[in-house]
Amino acid sequence: MKKVFLLLTLVLLSGCNLRVLDPASDSAEKITDLIYLSFAIMMLVLAVVFVLFVFFIRKYKERSETSVYIPKEKKENKWLEVTWTVIPFLLLAILAVPTVKATYDITSKMSGPGQSVSKEARIIDVEAKQFRWEFTYENGKTTLNELVLPKDQKVTFHLTSTDVIHSFWIPSLAGKVDVRPNKENRLSFVPRVTGDFQGKCAEFCGTGHANMRFETKVVTQEEFENWLATE
Ligand SMILES: [Cu+2]
């Protein structure tokens, strides 16, 4: 029964277009790199623990000549203690430095309303509402649950909500960023790949939360200008 459930879950998830490890923007690349780095460190620790585990099981296995053997009691081993203190410290440092750097890089793009936004960025106002997303472009064009972005050009979102707290998330591109009533949050990134990406609300906001999704199309800059100019 458990296996059937697992298979069904896998089948259902395989239809899901919310991929985090498939970055298509500068911000998403940074987050993906961090995930891979922490995964690599985890695997390294796991490998060392398993090798030691097998080694000690073999070394201290009961044999006929050791069945009554009781090892001598040792009070302390300074070098062992130094080793198992220093190694985790180093691993955490290796993880912490790029994490803090990436966090600063990404969050500096989520500047508050008072701070200036670079001139070249395309500005898109995002209004979240139970249970839909409305996008307004510089020329006043609005779309519902459909976002179109130019490739290789910086986009800056001004995010607000008209009711409860939502969260803006396009797993392949960026997020999650809270979308709050009465307070504007900002998010910028540069899409690097053309294609369709799914976005959704990542903060439980009511009965229709699961359906609060939107399609994101990244197109070439020329296609974007043409699209923007049409009604
Ligand atoms: Cu929501």
Automatic annotation (TrEMBL):
Keywords associated with the record: Copper, Electron transport, Membrane, Metal-binding, Respiratory chain, Translocase, Transmembrane, Transmembrane helix, Transport
Every Cytochrome oxidase subunit II copper A binding domain range: 119-230
Protein topology in the membrane: Multi-pass membrane protein
Coiled coil spans: none
Pfam families (UniProt xref): COX2, COX2_TM
Transmembrane segments: 34-58, 79-100
Matches recorded under InterPro entries: CcO_II, CcO_II-like_C, Copper_CuA, Cupredoxin, Cyt_c_oxidase_su2, Cyt_c_oxidase_su2_TM_dom, Cyt_c_oxidase_su2_TM_sf
EC category: translocase
Subcellular location: Cell membrane; Membrane
Chain ranges of the Cytochrome oxidase subunit II transmembrane region profile domain: 12-110
Record text on cofactor binding: Binds a copper A center.
Family: Belongs to the cytochrome c oxidase subunit 2 family.
NCBIfam families (alphabetical): CoxB
Name this protein carries in UniProt: Cytochrome c oxidase subunit 2
Origin species: Halobacillus shinanisalinarum
Gene: coxB
